[in-house]
Design a protein that fits this description.
The structure holds two protein chains of two kinds. Chain A is of the alpha+beta class. Chain A has a domain of 93 residues: Hotdog Thioesterase (Thiol Ester Dehydrase, Chain A, Roll), CATH 3.10.129.10. Chain A has three helices and five strands; from the N terminus they run E-H-H-H-E-E-E-E. In chain A, strands 1-3-4-5-2 form a five-stranded antiparallel β-sheet, with helices on one face. In chain A, a hairpin with a 4-residue loop joins strand 4 and strand 5. The N and C termini of chain A lie close together (9 Å). Chain B has one domain: Hotdog Thioesterase (Thiol Ester Dehydrase, Chain A, Roll). Chain B is built from four helices and five strands; from the N terminus they run H-E-H-H-H-E-E-E-E. A five-stranded antiparallel β-sheet of chain B has the order 1-3-4-5-2, sandwiched between helices. In chain B, a hairpin with a 5-residue loop joins strand 4 and strand 5. The two termini of chain B are 14 Å apart. Classes of the chains: A alpha+beta, B alpha+beta. Chain A: This is Acyl dehydratase. Chain A: Belongs to the enoyl-CoA hydratase/isomerase family. Chain A: It comes from Saccharopolyspora gloriosae. Chain A: InterPro entries: HotDog_dom_sf (IPR029069), MaoC-like_dom (IPR002539).
Chain lengths: 137, 149
């Protein structure tokens, strides 16, 4: 891991098809009453399509998994800045991806800053941003 | 009753509004189920930055509807997530209890090519250890579309 260089690509993390049942459970865990996550009729009424829409934190979690699988655990992600660009619907297949921007040392720790993103396969970007990850021992 | 949309002076006044706050405990069963929903490695436990937002918003002391109402909006007005910036100063622990405190950091009226007129509101929520030390922070933004009202 100490040979990390700017421009290195992280191994892609593929997700999907995204599960409507997991969204429903997540709504309960978050006590999130917004029906777009569990009621197709509500999604249709709002003109947002005909499939329920994934929670933002789940989308973010896929990017964290990309980083954690590469760096050795989600706890190694020290900072994460993400911009919401689009929605993920039930049944979508996704690709989380990242590229190393720079490597630095702080208090004896090797920190890698990455550009990261989440896209719907064959569709639009969902998230884009940057992350700082601790790598090595 | 429809809440009144704040004018720009009122938006300025809302900056600095503090959340009532509260406490959040990372119960093992809850962390496990969240990780299952997120398809995350169970070994990650509460280590993901995503848990900062989940804990902070669960214990911010107001419901989402109440937060929307501060800015003259309802769920049906379609408030949208903008950005989220999370910083972890120390790992979050399963079984750990954290105090949540936060405030409205910014509120500005803007015009976008696609969105039209909207209000961009930034809020910050912090998780503190029981010792008082800062464990993690998340700063998020919400877009409130205005032209439809």
């Amino acid at each position: 891991m100490t040979s990390v260089r700017p421009g290195d690509a992280l191994p892609d993390y593929r997700v999907g098809p995204v599960s409507a049942e997991k969204m429903k459970t997540m709504s309960a865990l978050m006590r999130d009453a917004n029906p777009i996550h569990f009621d197709v009729a509500a999604v249709r009424a709002l003109g947002l399509g005909d499939r329920v829409i994934n929670q933002g934190p789940l989308n973010q979690a896929y990017v964290v998994s990309l980083l954690g699988r590469w760096a050795g655990g989600a706890h190694r992600v020290r900072e994460l800045r993400l911009r919401h660009l689009g929605a993920v619907h039930a049944g979508d297949r996704l690709r989380a991806h990242g590229t190393v921007l720079d490597v630095s040392e702080q208090d004896g720790e090797l920190l890698v800053r990455c550009e990261v993103g989440l896209d719907v396969l064959g569709g639009d970007p969902v998230l884009s941003g940057t992350a700082t990850v601790h790598v090595g021992g | 009753m429809t809440p009144a949309v704040p004018d720009e002076a009122k938006l300025d006044e809302l900056v600095g509004t503090e959340f009532p706050g509260g406490e959040f405990t990372f119960e093992r069963w809850w962390v496990r189920l969240v990780n299952e929903c997120a398809l995350a490695d169970p070994a990650d436990e509460a280590g993901s930055p995503v848990f900062v937002f989940l804990a902070a918003t669960s214990a911010m002391g107001v419901s989402w509807e109440r937060l929307w109402s501060w800015f003259g909006a309802r769920e049906s007005d379609g408030p949208m997530a903008g950005e989220i910036h999370t910083v972890l100063h120390r790992p979050l622990r399963v079984g750990g209890t954290y105090a949540v405190r936060g405030r409205i950091e910014s509120a500005r009226r803007k015009r976008g090519a696609r969105t039209g007129v909207f209000d961009l509101v930034g809020y910050r929520l912090d998780l503190h250890e029981t010792s008082g030390e800062l464990a993690a922070s998340c700063t998020s933004s919400i877009l409130f579309p205005r032209e439809r009202r």
